Amino acid sequence: MPSALRKPSLLAIGFAAFILCLLLAVDTQAAAQDPAPDAHSQNSGTPEIFPLKDVKAGMKGVAYTIYTGDEIEKVDLVVLGVLQDAIGPKQDIIVVQLLGDKAEHSGVVAGMSGSPVYFDGKLAGALSLKLGQFTKEAIGGVTPIAEMMDVEKDSATPMAKNAGGATAMKLSPLPATSRIPLPSEFAQAAAAGAGAYLEPIETPLISSGLYPETLAQFAKDFAAWGMTAMAGGTAPSSPEDADLKPGDMVGFELVRGDLNLSSGCTVTTIVAKQIMACGHPLFGFGTVAMPLARAHVITTMASSMASTKIMSVGGEIGTLTQDRATAVMGELGPGPAMIPVDVTLTTPAAEKKFHFEVIQNPQLTAQLVALSAYNGIVGSTAYGEGSTLQLDGNIELQGHTPVHLSDLFAPPDQPVPGGFFVATDVMSAFNEIYSNPYEQPKVERVDLHVTQLPERRWAAIDSAWMEKTEVAPGETVGVKVLLRPYRGAPFIQEIPVTIPEQAQRGTMQLLVSDAETLNRTVHSLGAVSQGQLPGLEELIRLMNRERRNDCLYATLLQPTPTLLVEDKEMPNAPTSEINILDQRQNPGGARVVYESTAGEWSVEMHEVIAGEHRLMITVK
Fold it and tell me: Could you give the CA distance from residue 102 to residue 297 in angstroms, rounded to a whole number?
């Protein structure tokens, strides 16, 4: 019988079986020590935890992260030591060094925040810190998982009334500029050199549809939060978007629509429909409501200064609910409502419309609306610097009168785009609304209309005079104002002023001014301090009474007290009322200003007016 047809001996069969069992045992042991991320998928229970007290220097472990696409990769690491109370009391950090070719090439990458770290198959925490800048040593800090889980406990604590507002928050997040000194023995072990610091890993700020001009104006504001702005993209939503695993990427949507702006980091763990990510704060706002989306890594860009993941954001998969010092937490499911923003830019050549949605957040909404408006303005091919911009718009709030916006903006001599002043005017209105001490406002929509007018429409008040300085009650006199326009011949504008019949006899002052001076000097909005109004509605009324900056104003002032009661002005207040006010322990929404407005007149100029001039007149 040929040897090829001979049956194998029992000894050969036994030896083969022994080798097979040995290989299976090795694979089983490796799987137990190095679990795949989907071992703790969203359908699993609480992951098995590796206690911080058992972490020792020299221990080997693994982290899971994505370098390209959606492929979760294992990164080996070794523990350098544990820093006790590094961030604050009972807030420790595990210092590790990442190993392998990719880690050596890229270092700790922006977007790695939240990458889960395992020892002996048990979850120990999330990568959250890196070793400074201009270094590619892959040394990082790991936030212990127990401290991340504290976010869930803290979120169960009932919030105070009006919580979420700028004045109601009491948080201690890790600031983006915090630096934790790396002990010399740790630095020497990793050849990092003396004077090394650990700092939070930057969070990628992913944008699509964002013009370079917009990025130049607003990127520095987000950099203060530890975010690195970069071009990204959007990806079509998929039914698999919510099927997350530890090591996957998630995005937090700030703006979406004709402009998309999101931040992103790595998922640490998923329990039922609840996710933990980042290992450090996004902004540190506490309780939040931001859309949670699936994110994808296009590629990882290595840099000696700061390597980063270039990402795209896919479909909405839930809501980010907590933004705390040691982690962010979210719920898979429906996302929160956002604020619709419509921006229309009208030029002599065309009209262009943009639509966005921005998150409802006291600290960020103003900036995001301003950014979106500015991006819409500079994004029109018909827009050009050197022209005047007219803003008309409304901010609609639930249960309140809309806030009206109306102003004119001429290009300045400084190298600042005119559209930026429109954006900051919108931001100022939002800040006034959100910083109110009465209630947490809910913005329902924003509608902005910007009209481009030819030429630089601006004029300064050079001087003013009257035909006569002695007048009688009921008499009308002409106040002549010399205005000097930008690169044009000076001209005179007359304002007819009728002295009120009830005007006090004696010397009075006539203020000829622009809107800004009048709002600051006379308008009660500047005189009323926080908390002296009955509520938000009265604040909105004051905001809507502010003067337009394209008008020339003449205001007659007399040296008699004005009583400011809530949002109302009571000129020529009787001494008896003032005495009663002084005797009260808690005057509430009332105060005295020792000057009264006897009359106000204006002329619409259709150009920005700047400056002031004061005249003295005598009422006989």
Answer: 15
- The three-state secondary structure class of 504 is coil
Query: 370: closest CA among 415, 320, 431, 413?
Result: 431
Contacts 24+ apart (CB under 8 A), 500-504: 500/473, 500/474, 500/556, 500/598, 500/599, 501/473, 501/474, 502/473, 503/473, 503/556, 503/558, 503/598, 503/599, 503/619, 504/558, 504/560, 504/572, 504/598, 504/619
Sheet of strand 608-610, all strands in order from the earlier edge strand to the far edge: 491-498, 476-485, 458-466, 608-610
Q: Write out the two tokens for 556.
A: 């007659």
Boundary of a domain, candidates 336, 361, 396: 336
Return left, alpha or beta for 395; rule: phi > 0 is left, psi -120 to 50 is alpha, else beta: beta
What b/e readout covers 326-362, taking b as 16+ CB neighbours within 10 angstroms? Answer: bbbbbbbeebbebbbbbbbbbbeeeebebebbbbbbb
Is 268's pLDDT higher than 60? yes
Whole-angstrom distance, CA of residue 219 vs CA of residue 238: 30
Query: What are the C-alpha distances in Å from 501 to residues 154, 471, 619?
Result: 65, 11, 10
Residue 445 belongs to a domain with what CATH number?
Answer: 3.10.20
- Find out whether 274 and 68 touch, Cβ atoms under 8 Å: no
Q: What is the pLDDT of residues 350-400, one digit of tens each?
A: 888 999 999 999 889 999 999 998 988 887 655 666 788 999 999 999 999
For tokens 């106040």, the residue is 479
Same structural domain, 442 and 468: no
Using a cut of 0.85, tell me whether the model's pTM lies above it: no
Q: Encode pLDDT of 45-71 as tens digits.
A: 678 999 999 999 999 999 999 999 999
* Number of domains composing the chain: 3
